[in-house]
Structure formats: C-alpha cells, structure tokens
Write a structure and sequence with these properties.
It comes from Cohnella yongneupensis. This is Pyrimidine-nucleoside phosphorylase. Its EC number is 2.4.2.2. Helices cover 45% and strands 15% of the residues. It has 17 helices and 13 strands. A four-stranded mixed sheet has the order 1-4-5-13, sandwiched between helices. Strands 6-9-11-7 form a four-stranded antiparallel sheet, sandwiched between helices. A three-stranded antiparallel sheet has the order 10-8-12. The structure holds uracil and calcium ion (CA). Calcium ion is lined by residues 88, 90, 243-244, 246-247, 252, 255.
Length: 433
C-alpha cells in the first residue's frame, strides 16, 4: 500500500479503511511516512472531512500508538471529564472531589496551562507541597483508597497525536473538526476512561468561537466515543465571559474551596452540578440527572465534598490547612482595584483578553518553558448583566508588581458597559448524547 495512493484516495473523496488508517498512523509515528506526505493527508482531510468510521478508526489508531493506562485495578466505571478549554475554568478542582464524595472513582490525568487558558495541575500546585509525581501503581492505590487522584499527563500517551498536532499547527490544518475530535478523544481513551463527559465551550474565550462549530465538534466526539464503546455525553457551555470570578492559579483554588463549601459563584456551581450529575449517572451511582444533582448538593451541604478535597490534597503531599485558612495560599503583594468609568450594565467581559491580562501578570505561560506566578491574577466583581455605578470596583488585580498600567487598560477595554439592561448568554445551551 503506497502512501501516495492513500493521499489521492482521500483527496478524491474516498473512504480510508481501518487497515489503511492503521498503516498511516503507524508509519507516521515510526518515521517511515515523512512529514510532507502526512501534511498532504491532513490537508486532504481538512477539505474532504472524514466518515464516522474513519474518525473512530483514526482515534483508536492514535490510542494504540503509545501507552494505554490500565485502570482495571479500580472497581467501578471510570468516568473522565474533559473541557475544551477556557478562561478561569475552575471546574476540575471542584468536580473531582465533588463526584468522588458520592462514590464516582476519579483517576484523572490533567495538564498544565498554555497561553490564555490555565491548567489544573498548575492550580493545584499552588497548595504548598502538593505534587503529581506519583507512579501508576501509587495512582491506582490512591484512587482505591480515597476515591480520587490526579496525575500529570504521561508523555508516553498518543505519540501519534503529539506528532500530528505539531504538524497540523504549522500546515494550517488544526481547524478540522474530525482531526480535533480524534485528537481529544484519543487522549481521553488512552488515559483509561470507560465513559466521558465533555464540556464543549463556545464564545470569545473558547477554542470554538461559534455555536454551530461547537455543536458539530461535540457531536463528532460523542459519536466517536459511543462507536468505540465509551459512553460519551457533551454539554455545550458558554465561554463568552470568564467562568466564575477568579482567573489565576491560587485565586482559583480559593474559588474552588468556596464552591465546594456551597458559597461559590453561581455559574461555576451550576456547571459543576450539571457535569457532575452526568458523571454520577454514567458511573451508575444515580439513575437520573435529578437524583444525581440531589446527591451532589447533599455532599456540598454536609461538608463531604470539602472533606474529600482535604483528603485528596493530603494524600498528594499538599497542606490541607489551606482549605480552612486560604490566606496560607500564595498571595500577591498588591491588590489594585479597577473601577468603573461610567454607570450602566455590563454588556460583555471579553474572556480571551481577560485571560491574556492574567497571563501578562504572570499567571499563565507564553511558551511551554515559561515560569508562572501562582499568586497573581484577576478577581471579577461583576458579571455580564450586572448593574454598575461609576467608581465601583469591576475587578481586583492581584499583582507582584505595582506596574500594572498595561494590564489595567486591557481589563478596562475588555469590560464593556452600556446604558440599556443586558440579558447574559445562557450558561448552558444544550447537551449531545
Ligand atoms: N486540542 C487537542 O487536544 N487537539 C486538537 O486537535 C485541538 C485542540
Ligand atoms: Ca474561575
């Protein structure tokens, strides 16, 4: 089978078979198929798309290109959650202990932040002592003992995806829905998930800015998951403004603690209950979404959720006293208010540029190698739709330098205030099962 024949087949609208896709992925990973042929293939896929069978076969070929985590030593249905990425998205910090508190086993691999979006591992590392350097055996025994553990993404997973993503990045082929969907799903499946809940974001701060594209991506991922025997559900959620109030690592840990105590921001709480209910149902612990939501609310009200968070932090070396004394978390030297220049209603808070403003303070990485400042970030005091009076604080900048003029102007430019009342975008706009 010559690679050029596969490229022309796809170019002309044909369907690649499972064995053809396997050969392509294997050959590319091992280096017998060169970058120039794979980039032609990626471009052919970009224009021709992929059939449902092709997408599922590509996903599984990438899963088998590297290590596959075996979670069979943990009893129960291992449900993973994946977010397509956003600004101030603190959901994993809340969800993991929350669903673990009702008996859903959480064996999670998370990533670090890059660009304007934050990463769960960075956020957790703002808890003094907390670390994710544990081996697979320890990981499984922690999940069996405590119901949850979080480790870093192993770099042995899905080498085919890593190589292909790098190629797509420089050949104008990132933005292909079947390629994005198989990339994301391959990583989830290789991390050992039996079932998957996807949080697909839309709006300014999201990877998919448009609702129709987000829906298409969600449907494509759900189809792949279900086709390969992993029950998958997608929730479409708004990322036109940051989620919750806090953006920044230690600030988001505080926000997660508040939410686990039942006093967190409304949008973050609602999203966690929705995603958490799906996880609880998929794990077979509740029969319906409503029953699951009740269990989760009870875990918050009774303190079980916050206790689970403490157990989890302690088990991974973290100082759990931060939960009762959040002032022990890294704290920035300067708190600077950004005041409203006029009265009215908040019309929009551009999520992506708020994420970039937090990155300028040092909360995020410009490149994979950059160091980050865990203490800094932004806390919003207003959300879209809220009334504001001139002079009122819109946000607090948490900085380790007093020179924040540029960040301040970015925040001011990102928050639009208008005279007429505003109805915010709904947080949730549907589910795909
Ligand atoms: N995120 C991924 O993991 N893969 C893509 O292709 C795009 C976004
Ligand atoms: Ca947040």
């Amino acid at each position: 089978m010559r690679t050029v024949d596969l490229i022309t087949k796809k170019r002309d609208g044909g369907e690649l078979s499972k064995s053809e896709i396997d050969a392509l992925v294997q050959g590319y990973t091992q280096g017998s198929i060169p970058d120039y042929q794979m980039s032609a293939m990626a471009m052919a896929i970009f224009f021709r798309g992929m059939t449902p069978d092709e997408r599922a076969n590509l996903t599984m070929a990438m899963v088998h290109s590297g290590e596959v985590i075996d979670l069979s030593g943990i009893s129960g249905v291992k449900v993973d959650k994946h977010s397509t990425g956003g600004v101030g998205d603190t959901t994993t910090l809340v969800l993991a202990p929350l669903v673990a508190a009702v008996g859903v086993p959480v064996a999670k691999m998370s990533g670090r932040g890059l660009g304007h979006t934050g990463g769960t591992i960075d956020k957790l590392e703002s808890v003094p002592g907390f670390h994710v350097e544990i081996d697979n055996e320890q990981f499984i025994s922690l999940v069996n003992r405590n119901g949850l553990a979080i480790i870093g993404q192993s770099d042995k997973l899905t080498p085919a995806d890593k190589k292909l993503y790098g190629l797509r990045d420089v050949t104008g082929t990132v933005n292909s829905i079947p390629l994005i969907a198989s990339s994301i799903m391959s990583k989830k499946i290789a991390s050992g998930a039996d079932a998957i809940v996807l949080d697909v974001k839309t709006g300014d701060g999201a990877f998919m800015k448009e609702m129709d594209e987000a829906k298409e991506l969600a449907a494509c991922m759900v189809d792949i998951g279900n086709r390969v025997g992993r029950r998958t559900i997608a929730v479409l959620s708004d990322m036109s403004q940051p989620l919750g109030n806090a953006i920044g690592n230690a600030l988001e840990v505080r926000e997660a603690i508040d939410t686990l105590r039942g006093v967190g921001p409304k949008d973050l709480t609602e999203l966690c209950l929705t995603l958490g209910s799906h996880m609880t149902v998929l794990a077979g612990i509740a029969a319906t979404q409503a029953e699951a939501a009740e269990l989760l609310k009870e875990a918050i009200a009774s303190g079980k959720a916050i206790e689970k968070f403490k157990t989890f932090l302690t088990a991974q070396g973290g100082d759990a006293s931060v939960v009762d004394e959040p002032s022990r978390l890294p704290t920035a030297s300067f708190q600077i208010e950004v005041k409203a220049e006029r009265s009215g209603y908040v019309a929009s808070i551009a999520a992506e540029s708020m994420g970039l403003a937090a990155m300028m303070l040092g909360a995020g990485r410009a490149t994979k190698e950059s160091a980050i400042d865990l203490a800094v970030g932004i806390v919003l005091h207003k959300k879209v739709g809220d009334p504001v009076t001139a002079g009122e604080s819109l946000a607090t900048i948490h900085a380790n330098s007093e020179e924040v003029a540029e960040v301040r102007s970015k925040i001011v430019a990102s928050i639009v205030i208008q005279d007429a009342p505003v109805t915010p975008q709904p947080l949730l706009s549907g589910e795909i099962v």
